[in-house]
Amino acid sequence: MSTDTANTADVRRPDWITEELLGELVSRVPSSTGASWKLTEVYTGEVLVALPQSSPADVERAAAEGRAAQRKWAATPLPERLAVFKRAHELILRNQHKIADLIQAESGKARRIAFEEVCDPPMVISHYLKRAPKLLKDKVRPGMMPLLSSSIERHPPRGLIGVIAPWNFPFATGLSDAIPALMAGNAVLLKPDNKTALSPLFGISLLEEAGLPKGLFQVVCGEGPDVGPTLMDSVDYAMFTGSTATGRVIGEQAGRNLIGACLELGGKNPMIVLDDADIDETVGGSMFAVFGNTGQICMHIERIYIPEAMYDEFRDKFVAAVESMRIEAAYAFGPDLGALVSPDHLARVQSHVDDAVAKGATVLTGGKARPDIGPTFFEPTILEGTTKEMLHGVTETFGPVVSLHRYSTLEEAIELANDTEYGLNASVWTTNFKRAQAVAARIESGNVNINDGLATAYASKSTPSGGMKQSGVGARHGDQGLLKYTETQNVATLKKQVMGPQGKQSFDDYAKQMQTSLRWMRKLRIR
Ligand code: NAD
């Protein structure tokens, strides 16, 4: 395994990330108690900045400030609101290297995935700049009585949207889910993960530079259980991305408060290699599908099902490819694999591998931490012989670990792929697209990527993307990715009061007349 400049001491943090800049970034986070959290640089373990921790009272104040700013924003004409995001699109792209630096400093990911993360909000902006005018326009619908009545479907903003984001894509989940909410006329109250608050804070400063009114995008920081309940009591809708366990807590609070929630949760994502797949292409695609973001992608692949006859060739080529990966701590393109986000997460990944080995699995490559590269580096790991008795067999490892499985019939492969409580993403590899569609239709998963691991579905911003089963409720992207942040209002007008018996008409006659008119309207397809 290549480790080139594999020495923590060699990692040079970009010069522009100064103490002064970091202090200015975190000054946006309210903390009336003065409590703080040590936010560290993952590659070195050095403290970067003391991140203020918000109390429940701070959360309430931030919510009130957001609500005050929202009233004016909602009254701002849509073209003016959208113009802010046109400018933000360019500002984000212009600052891509700075944003990638911050993402890398706080998460330890490789540069190439940090760069891809930077591209997500501009893609979302671009999509909704096109769609928002159509989605938010009042729509005149046929009324109850042709000519005499009409109905208008309206989509006013909900008010204040709570966005709770995880650490694995802090800039993308902090901003991309907030953008359609803001476009729709809402204010946003964001709670990023403590570990990764810097890149979303920088992103918000760019949105404000693009013209977003001050106060509209609020941020609070703290441990989830400390600030979460007050946040959930303060907002009109919750957009949550994180683990299934926390998603349940958020869902319960949303239910109690009778507010809507979109829950984007965990996965245990399978890949099925069909017997007509091109092995070299599949091995190449599996590298990103499994190890992208060091395996810390909700949609990454943790299980690969391979036909018996292709198994040995696939395994040998995959192991060889993985052993040539470049693992390194560097604020530059080059390394294939970065670090895990924290020592705690490293311990979780290691425990899944150790548990699998103790219960009989074989490590084909990897399996160990690499403290020689940095405090939280872990080797890309391929397992064989895992079962559902093992942690890795049933729960999300969320690290650079995958298990290979043989199958003899396609029926068996589909059954094994579906044998999980999750349903977030699946990948199917084949040279026969018709066959792929038939397999996709039988997989219980909110996203299915054909001849790709995950990016093709996630980057299709026109199509809603969410989880089935325990992987989530609701979706981001597509029309519902914006409309979920709006109320639906039905404004119906009756030009003349014609309901009920007219004049001396008996109710019997009125009922007959209604019956006839309903039949005719059905025949003439009027309603
Ligand atoms: P997590 O659930 O521990 O935390 C997510 C966020 O919720 C963090 O900001 C955390 O501070 C906050 N939180 C925790 N408890 C809370 C509470 N009681 N109230 C309010 N907020 C609370 O998840 P994580 O470990 O940070 O992220 C990894 C998980 O996220 C994985 O399971 C991954 O699959 C999932 N994920 C899903 C998607 C998706 O789109 N489906 C995307 C990214 C990550």
From TrEMBL:
Protein's UniProt keywords contain Oxidoreductase: yes
Enzyme class: oxidoreductase
Pfam families: Aldedh (PF00171)
Single biological process term from Gene Ontology: gamma-aminobutyric acid catabolic process
Superkingdom of origin: Bacteria
Residue ranges of domain Aldehyde dehydrogenase in the record: 37-491
One GO molecular-function entry: succinate-semialdehyde dehydrogenase (NAD+) activity
CDD domains: ALDH_SSADH2_GabD2
Family, similarity comment: Belongs to the aldehyde dehydrogenase family.
Protein's name in the database: Aldehyde dehydrogenase (NAD+)/succinate-semialdehyde dehydrogenase/glutarate-semialdehyde dehydrogenase
Naturally occurring in which organism (per UniProt): Nocardioides panzhihuensis
Highest classification ranks of the organism: Bacteria, Bacillati, Actinomycetota, Actinomycetes, Propionibacteriales
